[in-house]
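User: Here's a protein and a ligand (zinc ion). What would the complex look like?
Assistant: Let me lay out the input and then the predicted complex.
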Amino acid sequence: MSAAHPDDRAGREPGRPRIPLICPRCGHEQRVVPGGPDRAVRVVHVATGREACEPADLARAPDDGT
Ligand SMILES: [Zn+2]
């Protein structure tokens, strides 16, 4: 009988919880990158590396019905 180790993965990253950022507009994953003198940080989309959403994704509005 070996004592099962409590899977404590949270202790791997001290003070830096990897919370996945999801864009509320397009639903894509975002990440925080260092900004410039104007902004401390910027939140950009992982796929495009831009702050703006992809027009193609925004165009996919829930337009079912008519
Ligand atoms: Zn977006």
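Summary: The first helix runs from residue 55 to 58.
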